[in-house]
Amino acid sequence: MRAREISLIILVSTLAVVGVVDADGLRKNFYKKSCPQAEDLVRNITWGKAQNDPTLGAKLLRMQFHDCFVRGCDASILLDTVGNNQSEKVATPNRSLLGFDVIDDIKTQLEQICQGIVSCADILTLAARDCVSFPFKQPKWDVLTGRRDGRISMASEANGNIPSPFSDFTTLGQNFAKKGLNVNDLVVLSGAHTIGVAHCGTFSRRLYNFTGKGDADPSLNASYAESLKKQCPNPANSATTVEMDTQSSLSFDSNYYSILNKNMGLFQSDVALLTDRSSAKIVRQLQSSDAFFSEFGKSMKKMAAIEVLTGNAGEIRKKCRIVN
User: Fold this and answer.
1) What is the C-alpha separation between 301 and 55, in angstroms, rounded?
2) Domains, the chain, ranges and CATH?
3) Which of 8, 144, 173, 276 has the fewest beta carbons under 10 Å from its own?
């Protein structure tokens, strides 16, 4: 037998033992030997907190999105500002993020049983999945692990990378393409708007001054627009929030696509999905719950692998808010 053939057999055997490794270096059950309790502990803590806060899934899912779109999924969103360097947390798109205390609690407990082993980036990725999955009592998508934590977090990088609720289809497509995500991923991941709330200022222009002439967005369902105006008088109160998926903001389901087809998408970025023929077709297909859950899992796996740090890159933070 040739040496090359022997090497190939050894490689295949090794992969069979440790689990299939993705091209980005992530794999299932990364902590199986180094910290076998890790994933169960993350799930148990997250489920306990989700039981007392049904809005937590939306909070952690949004935090993961905002992390992955800036410097990749490296937990840079968790770092506090130090000195004159303002971290991502203080950037305008991130000021309303919530749930940092949950990640802190999980990290503290993991450090007590597996010191310096589990990254904050993996904790965030697992916790977001587990929190959204809590009502179903089973994971809604697979999470590969093995990420390491970044050491850099700059507020100046957030605005140009995090998708904006004011964007048109072309801008959204370009934003996602820069991260290795396609149109299908764009439409599927927009479905995260099926849970959570939004501040009035993120959409009030559609109600009161769409073209700068004191008009409303004509593409917005008229009855829905009147309902939003009652909740968000002009000028917008920065503290007031409304459901992104009207009457269904606590249910992770495909209802987002149903209301979108009724011209009841809340953001300009939502209605933008209907302005392109290919994305509008995907919106129609995702009204099926089975199709949405299946595609969402695939796109989350792709997003959670954006520019990840693995191997010897980055570090394993002792505390998620500060570098070692």
Assistant:
1) 22
2) 22-157 (1.10.520.10), 169-303 (1.10.420.10)
3) 8
